[in-house]
Amino acid sequence: MPPVPERLAKVRFVTDEEEPHIKVNQAIAKATGTGKLLCAVCPAQVYQEEPDGTISVEYAACLECGTCLAVAAPGSLEWHYPRGGFGVQFRDG
Ligand code: SF4
């Protein structure tokens, strides 16, 4: 099997510029510590903590793995799959 970087190089993304599929509730994320958790667990580094403590979201890089949903405090994260035709496209071979 090829190494992980080689396999990930085949992944393609179609970005939905009109409708982000991820939104963070900044107040809840900060109050619960979820913001730092999102930054720590996302394998695609979609979440970044800014100097003012807010969490920025680079949703175009999302691999749709669901990890952030599993750890987010209730109300801190709005996440749904991208609209049809958008999002990540995994390719094998
Ligand atoms: S679904 Fe996975 S890749 Fe996408 S933002 Fe959440 S943790 Fe990151």
Description:
With 93 residues, the chain is of the alpha+beta class. The protein contains four helices and six strands; from the N terminus they run αββααββαββ. It has helices spanning 4-8, 26-32, 34-41, 67-71, and strands at residues 12-14, 22-24, 47-49, 55-57, 77-79, 87-89. Strands 1-6 form a two-stranded antiparallel ribbon. Strand 3 and strand 4 (55-57) form a beta hairpin. Iron/sulfur cluster (SF4) is lined by residues 22, 42-44, 46, 62-68.
Mean pLDDT: 95
**Structural class per helix/strand content?**
alpha+beta
The total count of strands amounts to 6
| Helix coverage percent | 25-40%
Termini Cα gap: 11 Å
How are the strands ordered across the major sheet?
A: 1-6
Q: Which cofactors or ions or other ligands sit in this model?
A: iron/sulfur cluster
Shape estimate: globular
Radius of gyration: 14 Å
Strand content: 15-25%
What's the main sheet like?
2 strands, antiparallel
- Classify the oligomer: single chain
Helix and strand succession? HEEHHEEHEE
Tally the helices: 4
Low-confidence residue ranges: none
